[in-house]
Amino acid sequence: MNATTVEIPARRGKAAHVARGQDVLVINTHGEQVVDTWAFNRDDLGEFMSMEHTRAHTLRLVPQVGDILRTNRRRPILTLVEDTSGGIHDTLLAACDRYRYAFLGVEGHHDNCADNLMAGLAALGLTASHVPSPLNLFMNIPWTPGGGLAFAAPPKPLPGGYVRLRAEMDLVIAFSACPQDVLPINGRACRPVEAHFRIA
Predict the structure, then answer these.
(1) Looking at residue 88, what is its pLDDT?
(2) 79 pLDDT more than 60
(3) Residue 171 belongs to what domain range?
(4) How far, in Å, CA of 98 to CA of 157, rounded?
(5) Domain count for the chain
């Protein structure tokens, strides 16, 4: 089957069905865009990719090629099979939401990843009970030996860098091209842009 490239519009979300054994290529088109990523068991959205359960098995803060990403029931849901993006990702931080932007001093509505997840699922006729912590692809959250965290710009933009994930069950995958424009995680210009994905 030919793979079609799908745009994740800047500041918006997308979701798609993925069959077991298919690959999902997530492309950092311009090299600086964070892509919040979720995966759900297609038959039961109450089972979802869980960062805390994954870390307990990989014993890493950042997944590496060959690592299995696990659900809240500790079952394999995705495997990271290739990474040409530089390997900078985050598994610690929650998706941005309206409360986060209010905390950052934004008044009124601000696009956010939590809403983008729900909108992406709704386009498929699906609803999740809550927003799990995402795999924040291409997000640079450096930490110190003392346990401190920071929000940083990508250390070296790699336009077109990608992550390839293999589905270990029939699933729904969802993405948000993170709309963060207050902190520099989408580059020092703080300008969110589109990303892309392909399923094959």
Answers:
(1) 96
(2) yes
(3) 5-199
(4) 28
(5) 1
